[in-house]
Amino acid sequence: MTAVDSMETAAMARSETLFGRNLRNFASNKVSVLFLFITFGFVLTAIAAPLIAPHDPNEADLFRRLLPPAWMSGGSWEFPLGCDALGRDILSRIIYGSRVSIFIGLAVILVATTIGVLAGLAAGYLKGWVDVVISRLVDILLGFPYLIFAIALIAMTGPGLQNIILALAYKEWVIPCRVVRGETLATAGAEYVEAAHALGASKSNIMLREILPNIMSPVLVVSTVRMAHVIILEASLSFLGIGVQPPTASWGSMVADGRSFMLNEWWLATFPGLAILLLVLSINVVSQGLRDAFDPKFHD
What we know:
Largest sheet: none
Helix content: over 70%
Distance between the termini: 38 Å
Oligomer: single chain
CATH class: Mainly Alpha
CATH topology: MetI-like fold
Strand content: under 5%
């Protein structure tokens, strides 16, 4: 085994040990673990939507228009949460709507985190003109309000699932980029990085195999926090009518459809709104637990 291989093995063992200790810290936080299971429950619901949804989410029947929830007078347990203005089952639409929110959230975070991590590593380690260009681009994008920026992009490209993901990811990458750049600047002078450089390791090897494994903790925390933000943005775009288009079920559009009936048929907007609240709350609590577990400042 060469000296470089030995150093890489030691670095991986060090990061794995730290990562395992952080995971144990997270597992000791019972509240965060509870909400982690709730988040997984939403994910499983989204995956198994065709199997667990009691009805077709787009099946309309005006004879059951504005049917109240089952526990109210005139309700039916066949439609536990009632029906909307077109007679569509609200429970089925909420279940299918979880697919849209979670898929867009995961897709945007995956694309944005990948771009942001690579850009942040390059800016923090290469420095010079690379850092100047990336940092100024980040500053420019941060100068635009996120929602207005996304609305403008969708107005130019048109609504649709792919365009929503691109519009949200187009600015979302700046957050992980700034985090990774700061962590890279702090880590670039570490002994194991200097040793790898002295042994002739390439810049890409140092960035991806030495620095990146040791800064993944803050990246994980930031990505979790930002996913909740992306889900709210997607719901906001759908609420405004420029997000996921009908008849696809979306929590934001369901809230928008129910706002005209809030005084009498409150369940139309309340139940999808509660779904948004519970999912975003769960992700935020999990992200808080991850921050407490992975940030040394919060350790005893």
